[in-house]
């Protein structure tokens, strides 16, 4: 009986698993395979096997390594700042008794905007001579800021725009987690003598751990894949200050038409993401114990 | 060790016309070392009052004093009171040991001192084996002990217990009840225990504070409140089955008080309750505890009441009868010795101990004093 | 009675025929010249019964959309438009059909095209693959009102001892840029965004300084002293004479600065000339003109050439219908009418047409500009080279590399790409 149930279960899930395999696994396997060939769109074909040649070439390429480094900085900056802001806003909203749905709606607005539109919008807003931000700064006597034209500034501008665009994702997820927390431990902690910060540190953070892990992971993976904003706002410039890895790989595939190398880079990125995911997962579990 | 005093304290929710007074200008003094019970039906304001004392609810009006010091605006952390919640409110992510240590660590106590306190309390409560478990791995009773332990290790000025036993099954509840009584006796610390269970109220407290609708109805030692309820609410709330309340008419004739109850009459000498004479010629409510009804006359001060048996509950040490006055009059209950041959529907003549009668004014529901 | 019955029959027959075979898809960029084609299309459909579906997208999407269709054996585009810097790549991959047989069979005259246009988006290695569609050679937009201003003229004369006039050489232009940078106006606005805006714009600076991209044997020459001087001039313009942030401007942002009257000059695509006179997007209508980018001497131009060509992909599902369309759209009549609507011609007969000149007096200047313009190296790896050049120029502008270092790095990669493309014989 039990075995028949199990077989029936497999039968029910088989179509879904097959579809998942076809949709998710196939491209990954294809990319993995392609990464070992000198495959270009100019001459597509699996005629010349190059082994780990593409990987070696990528690993020895200064621009690629620089992109990886910039991406790491970007991800850490974006995720860390978004997490802090997201947590603060979520905590504030969690205490709000009235108008929560209005706040939700306002917060969700940026998230609903297409990243391309976000990029165009901010390019306009941050236009050094014609944009509203520098005009406003000018009214209080601050010299125009070169938002996208100076390397360090451009990096932080892109970080800020991404934060503006995505921070509500953090807020919404964290808020959902916060509002699902039980209230009693907080009252117990207040009587135990915990200050607001101690309650946050010793009660909220540990209780939120699963939500935080998932939120950070998702945001991190999204951040690594950041592409649209870079494409619209800086094209990786000025210099190579904002040349994020996804945009780099995209160019390798669609400008250079060198799919073999692009796939090798994508596979390396995949390995790094998988590794980071595992590390974060384990770290967070240890903290909890 | 602390005395707790409430001076015309109110808790008001909302504002303006919609304002609700959950607690309405109550005055109470809980003496140092006392075991005070807040008793009342749900929504009577007893939990709110406790939470105001704890500092979890603000005091809207009036003054709250601990050891004579006004604490209205003092943070709960600094009141040095420990509260045990109905649903335990353990920290789900901490082991039992950490749950207990949390409050002590926040106060900067040395590790060694924390360890010895926890060991002592764990032994008292019999939870030594559970110290490294998480709350999710404990049964309800174990959790309650841990919650209690968390309060005990703090050695606070007073314990506030918010219906801590109501989620336990009957047997565990009576065990914990006994343990709490013993604890109070050993520690001598002030305790305030909120409950809606009159057995807990009667057995545990040194005093009971009965509340209704945000107001205090009566405060007193359990026996006193039981013996002399100030109104029909208290009379009907304490004990199971509660005091029988029968509509009656009071007359004075020939130096005797005569109570007519649905065609039957109880007479008692005027001299025994001279105060009642003032209500002569008026409707009253006659209060009569079930245990004050007997199968046979008890001494001289008895009066017979003819009843019909409706249900019979044989509890072992005693039997509870539900009856109708006359054939189908007002319902009343009697607590009788276990042995007896009662048949449902049969007539039964009961004898009331007239020295134990209570009279209440039907308009004010207040007790009518006998002298 | 009869006509009433016949009309629906006829309509049915025509409709059915059009659906069956004669329907072609073309992917085009969302630019003014595409709009002009779109407006004239009903005439083609009426004359030939061939339905044309224009899929109009942004430049950014075009290459990505085209490549999968071109790689496959049977794509969805019957005809395509090819940007000049894809030409080498498309040719190398064999994605375009040769047009010579069709040209000969129909007697289509290609000699009327500006020769540089045919070189850029017409012939590759002696075979015709494309018909030049429109040019986007770059020119110098400058403010005539500022040049004519009396106070400016006097001040200039005091300072330089010559008349203030449209610059005839790069040096004269450079002095004007410095001269006009005052009173909240910038001498120049640049488009410093990676990769094509900066690479294309800087190419003008290179040519204007007498530099070249490469020698006959496909060795890079743009890291010469002229190239370095050109890059230093470019950086000086951004840092000293341009608005804050020009290092990150795309052409639309730079154009906005110019059209809001905040800059004296802007080196850009010639199709912006028409936009300058459009009061809805410009506050300097009638106060700006375009000319070829001035070169090292009065006779030489410094402009960079640019153009799109029509082609029939190898994967075209209906090459015959596509050729019908190409013939029509590039016919003298339609080419002229596109020019009259504001298009940028590639044919000399259109440039010389009296009606066109009457409508747009700047046509003659544009012809001069085009004739003096230089071509960007077109080979298989042009897009990649634009990428590399853009990156290195941007690094130099950002101050992360010296001009010489940046150009040397780009030159090294150019040589490697040329080598890989088999250009060294």
Automatic annotation (TrEMBL), chain A:
Main location: membrane
Domain ABC transmembrane type-1: 68-280
InterPro entries per record: ABC_transporter_permease (IPR051393), MetI-like (IPR000515), MetI-like_sf (IPR035906)
Membrane topology: Multi-pass membrane protein
Subcellular location: Cell membrane
CDD domains: TM_PBP2 (cd06261)
GO CC, one annotated term: plasma membrane
Membrane-spanning segments: 12-33, 68-93, 102-122, 128-148, 155-180, 200-222, 262-281
Domain of life of the source: Bacteria
Biological process, per Gene Ontology: transmembrane transport
Keyword terms: Cell membrane, Membrane, Sugar transport, Transmembrane, Transmembrane helix, Transport
A Pfam family hit: BPD_transp_1
Family: Belongs to the binding-protein-dependent transport system permease family.
Name of the protein: Multiple sugar transport system permease protein
Organism: Palleronia aestuarii
UniProtKB/TrEMBL annotation, chain B:
Pfam families hit by this protein: ABC_tran (PF00005), TOBE_2 (PF08402)
Assigned keywords, A-Z: ATP-binding, Nucleotide-binding, Sugar transport, Transport
SUPFAM superfamilies per record: MOP-like, P-loop containing nucleoside triphosphate hydrolases
Any one GO CC term of the record: ATP-binding cassette (ABC) transporter complex, substrate-binding subunit-containing
InterPro entries the record matches: AAA+_ATPase (IPR003593), ABC_transporter-like_ATP-bd (IPR003439), ABC_transporter-like_CS (IPR017871), ABC_transpr_MalK-like (IPR015855), ABC_transpr_MalK/UgpC-like (IPR047641), Mo/tungstate-bd_C_term_dom (IPR008995), NA-bd_OB-fold (IPR012340), P-loop_NTPase (IPR027417)
GO BP term (any one): carbohydrate transport
Entry GO MF terms: ABC-type transporter activity; ATP binding; ATP hydrolysis activity
Ranges where the ABC transporter domain occurs: 4-238
CDD domains assigned to the protein according to its UniProt record, in alphabetical order: ABC_MalK_N (cd03301)
UniProt-listed PROSITE patterns: ABC_TRANSPORTER_1, ABC_TRANSPORTER_2
Protein family (similarity comment): Belongs to the ABC transporter superfamily.
NCBIfam families: PRK11650.1
Name of this protein: Multiple sugar transport system ATP-binding protein
Origin species: Palleronia aestuarii
UniProtKB/TrEMBL annotation, chain C:
Localization (cell): Periplasm
Pfam family, one: SBP_bac_1
Domain of life the protein comes from: Bacteria
Chief location: periplasm
Gene Ontology CC terms, in alphabetical order: periplasmic space
Family: Belongs to the bacterial solute-binding protein 1 family.
PANTHER family documented for this protein: ARABINOSE-BINDING PROTEIN-RELATED, DIACETYLCHITOBIOSE BINDING PROTEIN DASA
Protein name as catalogued: ABC-type glycerol-3-phosphate transport system substrate-binding protein
């Amino acid at each position: 009986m039990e075995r028949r149930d199990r077989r029936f279960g497999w039968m029910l899930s088989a179509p879904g698993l097959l579809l998942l395999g076809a949709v998710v696994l196939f491209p990954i396997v294809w990319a993995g395979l392609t990464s070992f060939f000198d495959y270009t769109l100019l001459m597509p074909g699996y005629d010349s096997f190059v082994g780990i040649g593409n990987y070696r070439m990528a690993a020895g390429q200064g621009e690629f390594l620089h992109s990886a480094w910039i991406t790491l900085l970007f991800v850490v900056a974006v995720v860390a700042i978004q997490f802090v802001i997201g947590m603060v806003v979520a905590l504030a909203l969690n205490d709000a008794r009235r108008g929560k749905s209005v706040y939700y709606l306002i917060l969700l607005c940026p998230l609903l905007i297409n990243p391309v539109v976000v990029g165009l919008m901010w390019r306009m807003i941050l236009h050094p001579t014609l944009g509203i931000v520098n005009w406003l700064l000018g009214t209080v006597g601050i010299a125009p800021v070169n938002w996208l034209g100076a390397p360090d500034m451009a990096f932080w501008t892109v970080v800020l725009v991404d934060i503006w665009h995505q921070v509500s994702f953090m807020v919404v997820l964290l808020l959902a987690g916060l509002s699902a927390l039980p209230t009693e431990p907080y009252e117990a902690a207040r009587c135990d003598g915990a200050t607001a910060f101690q309650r946050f540190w010793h009660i909220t953070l540990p209780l939120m751990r699963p939500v935080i892990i998932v939120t950070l992971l998702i945001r991190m993976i999204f951040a690594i894949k950041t592409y649209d904003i870079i494409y619209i706002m800086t094209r990786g410039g000025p210099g190579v200050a904002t040349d994020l890895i996804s945009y780099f790989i995209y160019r390798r595939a669609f400008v250079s038409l060198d799919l073999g190398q692009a796939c090798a880079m994508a596979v390396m990125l995949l390995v790094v993401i998988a590794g980071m995911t595992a590390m974060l997962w384990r770290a967070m579990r240890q903290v909890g114990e | 060790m602390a005395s707790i005093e409430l001076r015309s304290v109110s808790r008001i929710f909302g504002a303006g016309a919609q304002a609700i007074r959950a607690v309405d200008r109550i005055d109470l003094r809980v003496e140092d070392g006392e075991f005070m019970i807040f008793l009342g039906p749900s929504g009577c304001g007893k939990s709110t009052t406790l939470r105001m004392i704890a500092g979890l609810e603000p005091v809207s009006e009036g003054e709250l004093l601990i050891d004579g010091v006004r604490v209205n605006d003092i943070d709960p952390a600094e009141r040095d009171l420990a509260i045990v919640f109905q649903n335990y409110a353990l920290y789900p992510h901490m082991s039992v040991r950490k749950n207990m240590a949390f409050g002590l660590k926040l106060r900067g106590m040395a590790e060694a001192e924390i360890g010895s306190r926890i060991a002592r309390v764990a032994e008292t409560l019999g939870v030594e084996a559970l110290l490294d478990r998480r709350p999710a791995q404990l049964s309800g009773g174990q959790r309650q002990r841990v919650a209690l332990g968390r309060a005990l290790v703090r050695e606070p000025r007073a314990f506030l217990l918010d219906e801590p036993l109501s989620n336990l099954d009957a047997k565990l509840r009576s065990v914990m009840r006994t343990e709490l009584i013993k604890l109070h006796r050993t520690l001598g610390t002030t305790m305030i225990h909120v409950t809606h269970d009159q057995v807990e109220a009667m057995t545990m407290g040194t005093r009971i504070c009965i509340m209704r609708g945000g107001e205090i109805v009566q405060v007193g030692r359990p026996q006193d409140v039981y013996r002399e309820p100030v109104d029909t609410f208290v009379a009907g709330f304490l004990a199971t089955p509660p005091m029988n309340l029968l509509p009656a008419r009071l007359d004075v004739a020939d130096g005797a008080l005569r109570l007519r109850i649905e065609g039957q009459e109880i007479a008692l000498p005027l001299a025994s309750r001279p105060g009642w004479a003032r209500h002569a010629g008026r409707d009253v409510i006659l209060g009569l505890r079930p245990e004050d009804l007997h199968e046979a006359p008890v001494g001289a001060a008895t009066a017979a009441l003819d009843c019909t048996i409706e249900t019979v509950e044989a509890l072992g040490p005693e039997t509870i009868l539900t009856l109708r006055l006359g054939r189908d009059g007002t319902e009343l209950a009697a607590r009788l010795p276990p042995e007896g041959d009662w048949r449902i529907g049969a007539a039964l003549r009961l004898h009331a101990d007239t020295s134990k009668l209570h009279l209440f004014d039907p308009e004010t529901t207040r007790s009518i004093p006998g002298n | 009675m009869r006509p009433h019955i016949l009309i629906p029959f006829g309509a049915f027959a025509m409709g059915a025929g059009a659906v069956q075979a004669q329907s072609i898809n073309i992917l085009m960029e969302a630019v003014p010249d595409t709009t002009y084609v779109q407006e004239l299309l009903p005439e083609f459909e009426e004359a030939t019964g061939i339905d044309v579906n224009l899929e109009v997208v942004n430049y950014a999407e075009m290459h990505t959309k085209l490549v999968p269709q071109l790689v496959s054996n049977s794509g969805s585009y019957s005809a395509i438009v090819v940007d000049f810097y894809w030409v080498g790549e498309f040719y190398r991959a064999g994605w375009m059909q040769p047009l010579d047989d069709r040209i000969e069979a129909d007697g289509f005259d290609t000699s009327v095209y500006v020769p540089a246009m045919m070189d850029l988006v017409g012939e590759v290695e002696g075979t015709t693959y494309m018909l030049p569609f429109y040019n986007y050679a770059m020119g110098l937009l400058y403010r005539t009102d500022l040049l004519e201003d009396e106070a400016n003229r006097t001040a200039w004369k005091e300072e330089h001892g010559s008349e203030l006039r449209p610059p005839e050489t790069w040096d004269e232009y450079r002095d004007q840029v410095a001269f006009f940078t005052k009173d909240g106006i910038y001498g120049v606005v640049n488009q410093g965004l990676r990769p094509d805006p900066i690479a294309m714009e800087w190419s003008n600076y290179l040519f204007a300084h007498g530099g070249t991209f490469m020698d006959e044997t496909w060795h890079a020459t743009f890291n010469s002293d002229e190239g370095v001087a050109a890059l230093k001039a470019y950086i000086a313009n951004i840092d000293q004479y341009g608005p804050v942030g020009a290092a990150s401007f795309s052409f639309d942002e730079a154009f906005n600065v110019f059209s809001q009257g905040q800059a004296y000059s802007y080196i850009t695509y010639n199709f912006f000339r028409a936009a300058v006179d459009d009061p809805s997007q410009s506050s300097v209508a009638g106060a700006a003109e375009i000319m070829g980018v001035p070169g090292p001497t009065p006779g030489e131009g410094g402009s960079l050439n640019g153009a799109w060509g029509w082609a029939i992909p190898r994967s075209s599902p209906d090459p015959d219908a596509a050729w019908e369309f190409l013939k029509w759209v590039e016919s003298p009549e339609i080419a002229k009418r596109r020019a009259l609507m504001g298009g940028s011609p590639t044919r000399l007969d259109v440039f010389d047409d009296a009606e066109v000149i009457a409508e747009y007096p700047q046509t003659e200047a544009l012809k001069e500009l085009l004739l003096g313009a230089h071509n960007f190296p077109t080979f298989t790896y042009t897009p990649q080279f634009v990428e590399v050049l853009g990156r290195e120029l941007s690094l130099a502008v950002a101050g992360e590399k010296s001009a010489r270092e940046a150009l040397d790095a780009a030159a090294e990669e150019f040589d490697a790409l040329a080598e890989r493309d088999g250009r060294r014989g």
